[in-house]
């Protein structure tokens, strides 16, 4: 048995209700020493009182007041998954039909991809064809815009220049629009300042 | 999607994970679980019901609006109590509420404010005498806690009212483990002295 009174740390272990063989001498000491036993009893009583203090509740409507100021954060992938889920019909014959349809579509697309992959030269040719058509459509579109905005001669220059001229013309039109927008915003800001 | 009844049985980490997926029911479940503990902690720190409501509300708004920033290696409750404690301590320091009357906040100027800032100790005793004694003791404990230094108050409330481990308190208050133990020991010592007369 210990021949001295318990240190505060040792008393804490007993108050906290720790278990273990190292605590046996401490417990034996409190059994024999009235001073340490009384101190432990007082501490334990205090802890018990603290542990029984009630929780205080906020006034009614607290959760609503909090939630009214909380922005519920929904990641894009969760929103996308939920949107997809809404498209899935409820269990039953419709879901079975939809599943068969989706499985059929997936199988068809896979077969098509496989077929295209096995005929790479043809895929290349079709790809080039698509790019050329898209380029032609772009130039024609920009040409019509340029024709309407700047006249026939500018459109002719664009046609002879090809894709680089089309891009250059687009950049020019974009810059002009940007400068016009900024100028208008500036004018509005000046007008607001004067009014205030 | 889990329903409200399922959420009640889920651990905090799972409910937080659902909240991070944008489930409003999970936000509400976290609020339901912690509105009383957080409010009690803040109320015992600032001793003013109106202010405590504002601070508890501020705590939850901060936590729930930044739920995506929560790192699961920490306990959610530790994170929540840390923010609640910081908010309360900041307020106490601003107002310099070092000595607080048990009979109401020192800032209370009207009868309604005094009532709002007084503790109402709920009692479940059997006899009127028991009730009176219990009420007196409860009031004395609240008064004694209110007279502690804010750091001691946080530690003793988290340890013995919220039942947190020393390690959790250290993580919550950003204090070394040894300091937490010392604060709790000193707080208990002071409480024991303050309650001596009531016990006798």
Low-confidence stretches of chain A: none
H/E element string of chain B?
HHHHHHHHHHH
Largest β-sheet summary of chain B: none
Total number of strands of chain B: 0
Choose one word for the global shape of chain B.
globular
What oligomeric arrangement do these chains adopt? heterodimer
Helix content of chain B: over 70%
Please give the radius of gyration of chain A in angstroms.
40 Å
- Apparent shape of chain A: elongated
Helix count from the secondary structure assignment of chain A = 9
Mean pLDDT of chain A: 85
How many alpha or pi helices of chain B?
A: 11
Strand residue percentage of chain A = under 5%
The structure class of chain B reads mainly alpha
Write down the Rg of chain B: 18 Å
What does this entry show, briefly?
The complex is a heterodimer of chains A (196) and B (200). Helices cover 78% and strands 0% of the residues of chain A.
Task: Fill in the keyword field for this structure.
heterodimer, A: 196 residues, mainly alpha, 78% helix, elongated, B: 200 residues, 11 helices, 70% helix, globular
What report would you give on this structure?
The complex is a heterodimer of chains A (196) and B (200). By secondary structure, chain A is mostly helical. Chain A is built from 9 helices and no strands. Chain A has helices at 8-15, 24-32, 34-51, 62-67, 76-87, 93-118, 120-150, 152-161, 163-195. In chain A, helix 7 (120-150) packs across helix 9. Chain A is elongated and about 110 Å long. Chain A starts with 7 loop residues before the first helix and ends with a helix. The mean pLDDT of chain A is 85. Chain B is built from 11 helices and no strands. Chain B is mostly helical and 200 residues long. The N and C termini of chain B lie far apart (57 Å). The interface between A and B is large, with 32 and 46 residues.
Strands, helices and their partners?
The complex is a heterodimer of chains A (196) and B (200).
Chain A: H1 8-15, H2 24-32, H3 34-51, H4 62-67, H5 76-87, H6 93-118, H7 120-150, H8 152-161, H9 163-195
Chain B: H1 4-7, H2 12-20, H3 24-46, H4 49-65, H5 76-95, H6 111-116, H7 128-146, H8 150-161, H9 166-173, H10 177-194, H11 196-199
